[in-house]
Predict the structure of Growth arrest-specific protein 7a isoform X2.
Amino acid sequence: MFCRTSPGSTSPARRQNKEKEIKETKITINCVTFPVSTSAPEQQLLKPSEWSYCDYFWADKRDPQGASVSGFEVLLQKQLKGKQMQKEMAEFIRERIKIEEEYAKNLSKLSMFPMAAQEEGTLGEAWAQLKKSLADEADVHLKFSSKLQSEVEKPLLTFRGDNFKKDMKKYDHHIADLRKQLVSRYAAVEKARKALADRQKDLEVKTQQLEIKLSNKTEEDIKKARRKSTQAGDDLMRCVDLYNQGQSKWFEEMVTTSLELERLEVERVETIQQLLRQYTTLRHETDMFNQSTMEPVDQLLQSVDPAKDRELWVKEHKTGDLRPVDMDI
Amino acid sequence: MFCRTSPGSTSPARRQNKEKEIKETKITINCVTFPVSTSAPEQQLLKPSEWSYCDYFWADKRDPQGASVSGFEVLLQKQLKGKQMQKEMAEFIRERIKIEEEYAKNLSKLSMFPMAAQEEGTLGEAWAQLKKSLADEADVHLKFSSKLQSEVEKPLLTFRGDNFKKDMKKYDHHIADLRKQLVSRYAAVEKARKALADRQKDLEVKTQQLEIKLSNKTEEDIKKARRKSTQAGDDLMRCVDLYNQGQSKWFEEMVTTSLELERLEVERVETIQQLLRQYTTLRHETDMFNQSTMEPVDQLLQSVDPAKDRELWVKEHKTGDLRPVDMDI
């Protein structure tokens, strides 16, 4: 729908000429009015170099099914998807937790198996500590899984509270309502425009008829037609005013709300970055604690002494130190 | 059984006196002859301060069931038990290997789960690397389990070859045979001793009978009896000689073989110490390699940039940067 030239011009010929001279500078798509891109000085971005949401989501687009989707809807879906991403990341961490708990359980069980429990002395001690170290490793992994739960998984699940979805719905409805209002105000403009055109045509016909003395229309009829035409013009102006107010309101709310969504997205990315760093910190810690379970084992292995073990064993198991001698006759 | 005084004494009374004066200095137990512990200067240990096998396993002992067990048998059992210990340690390592393989398998599977695969930009890259790091961890643990198998489990199972049990059997039979020989030679000594006693008693009786002119025994008979007595004395000497040779042989083999078992035990303890140190080395390595899987993740998390991600996303998903303008009338 193109906009019309101002009401009140008289000659059709002259009007046609004017239409040829005045290029179309604006276009209304889905009831939103844009400058035609080739006309006028270019608009400056509201937030240059920031790739801000408030600069890039004014038009509607078509989804794969052909339905119209507002730019704001695209922004909103991005936020809802972000919440889904958190949830999936938390699930991933949950799966890691389960794997760690299984590993810990297996190590713990094995540490209690009686293999070579009868080994004695310094070697026996070192072996016993080696077996125990598996229980220590199990503890390290249990601690890891416990911290994963409290310091990564839980925050991932909860840092956007339950209110998040409600807030998104609120924004959604608010912006959509402003668009709906724009639609009805645009319809009013179109209606008023048509009414004006009808009134103008009527006036023109009546004026022509007067000039060629076609009918018995009096000056009175023409005045009435002219009055109605003027009134229709006033109606149109009022409708256009209301429309422009509605569009301005929607514009303001778009800027405010899209910037809020932008802020929320920055917050989401930074929070996730922080939580994933916590994950890597916990992994580093875990590997270090795990290394330290080897220290007592290394120490005892260092102390393994075959001579000492022989002494201990011989003292316990010797049968007699008197050596045999020749029998006398 | 006590040893007898030398053959050839004449008066029973005198003999009894000699028996009272000569204390028992030796005792034969299970056909092995020992000094009585209170007699004679104390024996010096063959290897003082070493608690050597060759010094402490001369006597037999009784097992809980009351059967007689040689000192050598105790040493041999120790070596066979040592082989059992190795086997059990290897089983323990095998169980650890299974646990590591399970852990690696679980991490590997999880790394391929599609959670949050739709996250994009710098955050998406960091997340993807975090997921991949689980596959890297899995590789670290698989490498660990592989080295556990080749550098710890396998050597534990094989460092005493199949020949070990055969060798132990050979030693067992060899020493046991020498003891059996001692038993039969001791029996011969006892037999010869008894024969000598009989010959001596016969001579005594015949001599007495001659003195009191009891019988018609001639000098000839007494000479014969005396000859038999001397011969029995020679037999006894020969039997005692053979016995002593047999005991010396057994003694030598005991010293040699028990020292070999002692050496084998030192080797066993040192080898196991070395293999268990290899275990702790592998564990240290593993924890270090595991830590390094976090490096690329840390780097990418460092690079997470909400502004950059916004730019990437907006460039891809923007709907239009022309802002709406007022409608003209």
